Amino acid sequence: MIYVRYADTPIGRLTLTSNGEALTGLVFEEERHPRSREGAVETADPILIDAERQVQEYFGKWRRSFDLPLRPEGTEFQREVWRLLGQIPFGETISYLELARRLGNEKAVRAVGMANGRNPISIVIPCHRVIGADGNLVGYGGGLWRKEYLLELEGVGENRLF
């Protein structure tokens, strides 16, 4: 069973999904890589209620990290990239090249970028914290304006790494 809940945020409406045990999705309304929500039930699932609360706290600048059970669906490589994304601290950025190095293969930059773009749990798995090697903002499924908003929310814009 897929449970769904919608949350309005300063950067648009988010769709949150759960399997009843863990958060499986957090995407922007106009996501680049749509996932099937066939048969999804809009309900007061406790996972989704908690996820929405934590996301709203993040946007309110009361939360710097998330404490939610996560179950993103993807390949083993994608899940490893997403695990490493979860280790990037609030308010910090790294390059796609650095992320590939952390995987042990700096030649995998393009694959890392593709896995980053397929992240099914945006914001909570902070793919917005990955930038180009030259410090520029590049590639974000929700649009670069959202990436810039999230980084500025975290104080990165103050140091202008991009």
Broad shape: globular
Low-confidence stretches at least 5 residues in length (pLDDT < 50)?
Answer: none
Number of helices, counting only DSSP H or I runs of 4 residues or more: 6
- Number of E strands: 6
Q: What structural class do you assign from the helix and strand content?
A: alpha/beta
Name the CATH architecture of the largest domain: Orthogonal Bundle
CATH topology of the largest domain: Arc Repressor Mutant, subunit A
* The CATH top-level class label of the largest domain: Mainly Alpha
Question: Could you describe the 3D structure shown?
Answer:
Helix content is 34%, strand content 16%. With 162 residues, the protein is an alpha/beta fold. The chain folds into two domains: 3-59, Double Stranded RNA Binding Domain (2-Layer Sandwich); 76-159, Winged helix-like DNA-binding domain superfamily/Winged helix DNA-binding domain (Arc Repressor Mutant, subunit A, Orthogonal Bundle).
Which helices and strands, and how do they pair?
Blueprint: E1 3-9, E2 12-18, E3 23-28, E4 41-42, H1 46-59, H2 76-85, E5 94-95, H3 96-103, H4 109-117, E6 130-131, H5 144-153, H6 156-159
Could you give a quick summary of the protein structure above?
The chain has 162 residues and is α/β, with parallel strands linked by helices. It has helices spanning 46-59, 76-85, 96-103, 109-117, 144-153, 156-159; strands at residues 3-9, 12-18, 23-28, 41-42, 94-95, 130-131. Helix 2 (76-85) crosses helix 3 (96-103).
